Amino acid sequence: MNPLDLNTYDGEGFYDELVESPGIPRAGTKLLYELLRCLPEGELGRFQKAAESALYRMGVTFTVYGDALGLEKILPFDVIPRVIGAREWSMIEKGLKQRILALNLFLDDLYSGQKILHDKVVPKELILSAPAYRPQCLGLKVPQGIWCHVTGSDLIRDQTGEFFVLEDNLRCPSGVSYVLENRHVLKRTFAKVFETSRIRSVDDYPNRLLETLEYLAPPGIESPTVVLLTPGVHNSAYFEHSFLAQQMGVELVEGSDLAVLDGQVVMRTTQGLKRVDVIYRRIDDDFLDPGAFRHDSLLGIPGIMEVYRSGRVAFANAPGTGVADDKAVYAYIPKIIDYYLKEEPIIKNVPTWLCSDDRDRKYVLENLSRLVVKTTNESGGYGMLIGPQSSKDEQDSFRERIRKNPRNYIAQNTLSLSRSPVLVQDHLEGRHVDLRPYNLYGKEIYVMPGGLTRVALRKNSLVVNSSQGGGTKDTWVLKD
Amino acid sequence: MLSRVANSIYWMSRTLERAENVARFIDVNLNLMLDTEVLGNNQWEPLVITSGDSTLFEKLYGTATKESVMRFLTFDRNNPNSILSCVWAARENARSIREIISSEMWEQANRFYLLVRDAAATETIFRNPHEFYTDVKMASHLFDGIADATLSHNEPWHFLRMGEMLERADKTSRILDVKYYFLLPTLQGVGSTIDGVQWAALLRSASSFEMYRKRHRRITPERVADFLILDRYFPRSIAFCIARSEESLRSITGTHHNFFSNAAEQRMGQLSASLNYSKIEEIMTSGLHEFLDSIQIRLNQVDDAVYETFFSLPRMNTAAKQTFPGTQHQ
Lengths: 480, 330
Fold this sequence. Notes:
The structure holds 2 protein chains of 2 kinds. In chain A, helix 2 packs across helix 6 and helix 3 (86-110) packs across helix 12. In chain A, helix 10 links the parallel strand 13 (278-281) and strand 14 (314-316). In chain A, the strands form 7 sheets. Chain A has a 5-stranded mixed beta sheet. In chain A, strands 15-7-6-22-23 form a 5-stranded mixed beta sheet. Helix content of chain A is 29%, strand content 24%. Chain A contains 14 helices and 25 strands. Chain A is an alpha+beta fold. Chain B is an all-alpha fold. Helices cover 71% and strands 0% of the residues of chain B. In chain B, helix 1 runs antiparallel to helix 7, helix 1 (3-35) packs antiparallel against helix 9 (193-205) and helix 8 (155-183) packs antiparallel against helix 9 (193-205). The chains are: A alpha+beta, B mainly alpha. At the A-B interface, helix 9, strand 9, strand 10, strand 11 and helix 10 of A face helix 1, helix 5 and helix 6 of B.
């Protein structure tokens, strides 16, 4: 008897990524559905175990901040992939390209003429009060006019199945290494499906990333030296930094490996000092240059911003991009797209209330128990209130915090995120998921066909962040 | 390659080699105990001396017993040279250079650490020690083999091999020195059963028993010393290890043989010459212990010189105080 009785698996009122209704797979998931249905008893559990031990052995791990032991864990992984059809994907791809193009124009404008502020499309105070706004970047001429080279937008689906952008990430978001490693593991596990399904490949990403970075090199350099700058082995995303450096075949450097000499950035090697042309930096703006940003930082490379300014080294991403993924600025993105491109957003925003706006704030304070409140400059699922799942005390505490500092908070409706099945012991249960595709902006904009499907492994939880008990799934985008 | 990375790969391989050698010492001692009940517990003290950490041991444990020595040398995190500490340090170094080494090497460093960590948690080794120490030796050999077969034999590999070979030379010199020191007082019993067993154990702890037999057959103290110090072909002899280290060093710098362009090459060349142009008779006449002592001092000097030449970061005072001027003011 097959323990995976798929006929009893039910969306329970949510949009389910696998089935339309019990027993009826969605158009793109038929093959996967059949495979799951026909697996011998216990096989899926064995797949799951094999995949986990492979990830553990490969050291695909992350560190959780605030965990006293500072131990590393493998990112929880569910073996059942999430499938996205070709037509849906084509819409996502167009929508993301549109959004990134507009965000880049927005950044370029903010740090030069600030026309959009003068035209009062986005309130000036909102930008100037954003913690990630960097007046140090005013007047910068960035290589090729590109600010946000490496981005990732968080998408969600509501109960009708429509995609929305929940958040933009313009500060070199992490997670792409999990996409590549998850796929690597699943190819071994579901070899048969890969042979017959038309699943688009994600393996090209490191190569594309390297091309994007080389494109930024100062003019006249035949074969530029690209490095990846990491805060070091104790950073929670260190695995990814090291993985990407390895996949691209570039040096992984720490701040102490770099120095500024005679107006150039150099790295210290066993054969002496070597010039560096492009830096894919995975450290915050604050820690780039103690002279320019945080004067108390011990991590940065003194003088590096001068070299950047003179065009003799390139950064990806440019400093100052964080202002455009501020959660309060997010609410203006449809207007920003309209302002620069004269287009309607292809992927919509989730309706958002800004607590800095008097009317919005009044509404938010009156409806705290129904809304999701987010701190504007936090990420990783920290600093959130999920109204329907919160206690009276938590609501009161947020009410107080919003009143004290309204600029720091936004609110959104509690969304019915779509669900995807995960293996729980010997049966399937639906869990909420989101999707983070990864994008590169070099010669052209590239949207990786796939991305990280994050899944809230706790039953009924809506928080998918890895730091909050979330896991991941492989994401299969089908060819036409 | 980056100086920091070269340093990490060098120490990764040194600490793994160190862990393997500690396992060898203990394993041989355990075997020896099975053959010679007469020696009792004083058989364990030389092990601590070999490791060079007697002071720390006395502070932590006091007297040397089978269990205290095994614990100290195998699982004690307070002992920086215990197998667990070494393998942990190697894995941390491996983690920091994952983009340089092959993924197979990383997986093996990771697996090696998990093997020792899990053993430390269960403590079953006190019931079945031989299996564990064999596993440690094999894990180290596997790592070496994987490195050899999956890492390009260019600069990182040469740093790896230099670290491994310098560490092995040091350990071979130590084990010979200590065993010799403890065996000499009993030399009136040359040819007696215990003596033969002891010398065979010494050879075994360097995995050299069979190879020695092929080369010299009869076991005599002088020939054992000759084999472990000067043999040109045995991969754990000091001369062999130094020759390979020097090869790697010169591959890194590109300097021609017989010349030197930095402190590392000078020190290594001096050490290499003193081994290449020595005879065991002379060494024995002027004192084996004195000779081995000088080898260990020179090995330390080579290590210091390697650090100075390749790893130490030149200090640079640059535009630390400049601020970043904005061109536009709000």
